[in-house]
Amino acid sequence: MNILILGLGYSAGFFARAALAQGWEVTGTVRSTEKAAELSSEGIRTLVFGGFAVSSTLAKAVSEADAVLVSVQPAEDGDPALGPLRAALMMAPNLRWIGYLSTIGVYGDQGGVWIDEATPPAPTNARTRQRVEIEEAWLQLGRDSGKPVQIFRLSGIYGPGRNAITKLRAGTANRLVKPGQVFNRIHVDDIAGVLMASLAQPRQGAVYNVTDDEPGPPQDVITFAAELTGLEPPPEIPFEQARLSPMAASFYGESKRVSNALVKREFGYAFRYPTYREALRTLVEAGE
User: Fold this and answer.
1) What are the φ/ψ torsions at residue 181 (nearest 5 degrees)?
2) Dihedral sign, Cα of residue 67, residue 72, residue 75, residue 259
3) pLDDT for 21-43, tens place per residue?
4) How far is the C-alpha of 70 from the C-alpha of 5, rounded, in Å?
């Protein structure tokens, strides 16, 4: 299988390595020659793409792809890949799967109740409203082309090098306490696992929540990481006393419990890390 990844960043990198382990050919776009050199050493073919002009090499990669994963961050005017590559994607003869990585932030604040894919998006800021628009644009591409497009709404992403333990060691962890505030998380290995499962059974227009089993207060994760490592946890700070950036404040303004039942039911997927506890224990055992 020939896989093209648009936006080969942290999460997509774990998917790329899982695909390579299956013996598939992987090409990914990056924004710098330095990143290209780093990934090429792992056997991933890389192309530098800034979201404007499409090179003949990238157009060729689209035309040869069996699957395309879209993991680029939105630009001010929308998705930086969809416009330049839409025609090439429409005409790609072998393309049988397109996946777009989105966010559970599109659901907005749900007051801490359980929600699933049947819950209508209720974005609360310009950033998540744009995400909903981009999701719809990709789904429209699927309807227009007849090629299966799937949307994957990710919860709080963590994994090696990016987790509560590394924050504790770096001194950047905090324990802001806002009563009733909960959210889900997802380990990068499980993002890769769900994507691999979807590749085996594409479904046009599908939307999936990619999230763990246990939504919970963010301060609990930091406390558990401190217990595992013997590090001193930061003091608990009441939310109303915190000084937050607008983005962080918007994050704490939303509370929801997101179900992953559809992924389990449709793919038969068993999460490697159903909660943060299994994942953090594994990271400690690995030396992190």
Assistant:
1) -85, 120
2) positive
3) 999 999 999 988 888 788 878 88
4) 6
**b or e along 153-181 (b: 16 or more beta carbons within 10 Å of the residue's beta carbon)?**
bbbbbbbbeebbbbbbeeeebbbbebeeb
> Residue 44 has which token pair?
């991933």
DSSP string over 21-89: HTT-EEEEEES-HHHHHHHHTTT-EEEE--SSSPPHHHHHHHHH-SEEEE-PPPBTTB-TTHHHHHHHH
Per-residue pLDDT for 226 more than 60?
yes
Q: What is the pLDDT of residue 34?
A: 81
pLDDT in tens, 162-210: 999 999 999 999 999 999 999 999 999 999 999 999 999 999 999 999 9
User: How far, in Å, are 104, 130, 160, 229 from residue 259 at the CA level?
Assistant: 11, 23, 24, 30
- How much is the pLDDT for 225? 97
Enter the tokens of residue 59: 């157009």
CA 19 to each of CA 133, 201, 268: distance values in angstroms, whole numbers, following the listed order: 29, 16, 19
- Listing DSSP states for 88-113 in one string gives HHHH-SS--EEEEEEEGGGG---TT-
Please state, rounded to an integer, the average pLDDT across all residues of the chain. 94
Q: How many CB atoms lie within 10 A of CB 34?
A: 8
Say yes or no to pLDDT of 273 above 80: yes
d(CA 103, CA 111): 18
| 222-243 mean pLDDT | 93
